[in-house]
Write a structure and sequence with these properties.
It is a single chain. The protein has six helices and six strands. The strands form two sheets. It has a three-stranded mixed β-sheet, sandwiched between helices. The chain is elongated and about 55 Å long. The longest helix has 21 residues. By secondary structure, the chain is of the alpha+beta class. The protein folds into two domains: about 80 residues, 2-Layer Sandwich (GMP Synthetase, Chain A, domain 3), CATH 3.30.300; about 70 residues, Ribosomal Protein S8, Chain: A, domain 1 (2-Layer Sandwich), CATH 3.30.1370.
């Protein structure tokens, strides 16, 4: 099955879900840098708050449901995310700033390690990727299970220092 059909169906599934929920919205498709499609939902702020939910949980569930609908219909899975009124974009900026300040605290020796609050898999991935790209001198590890899974940031001991 071709990729455009999958894109069309993912967008169609989103449109159907929004119609069932009686939410007037437009869905714009945007290619992201890592061959991921972002479906940006534009709607009223009051409806966006409801669709995003507490800590983005409803938005994550919506994205999961659309993925499952694609799989159930035998559509090849192309990576996509669903964003509402740029929530994920704003959240990513906040997470990157948190990762940056935590890494700087570790590098400066203010603390030995920083344990962040529990986060979703998507949020942990944002932090891991940001630190790997911008702070090679620190390491980030996920610890815990389920809803208590969190990131611990600590100083990356160089192999030469560890051997010496």
């Amino acid at each position: 099955m071709n990729m455009n059909l999958m894109d069309e169906n993912a967008k169609t599934f989103l449109e159907k879900i929004l119609a069932i929920l009686d939410i007037e919205a437009s869905i714009n498709e945007e290619e992201l840098e890592d061959e991921t499609v972002c479906y940006r939902i534009e709607c009223k702020r009051s409806e966006a708050r409801w669709l995003i939910g507490r800590k983005g949980q409803t938005l994550e569930a919506l994205q999961f449901i659309v993925r499952q609908m694609c799989k159930a219909n035998g559509i090849s899975q192309r990576s996509f995310i669903v964003d509402i009124l740029d929530y994920k974009t704003r959240r990513k900026e906040i997470l990157e700033e948190l990762a940056k300040s935590s890494a700087i605290s570790v590098i400066n020796g203010d603390v030995e390690s920083v344990e962040l609050m529990p986060m979703s898999a998507y949020e942990r991935r944002v932090i891991h990727q940001y630190l790997a790209a911008n702070f090679p001198e620190v390491k980030s590890l996920s610890q815990g299970e389920g809803e208590d899974r969190r990131i611990v940031i600590s100083y990356q001991v160089a192999e030469q220092e560890a051997e010496g």
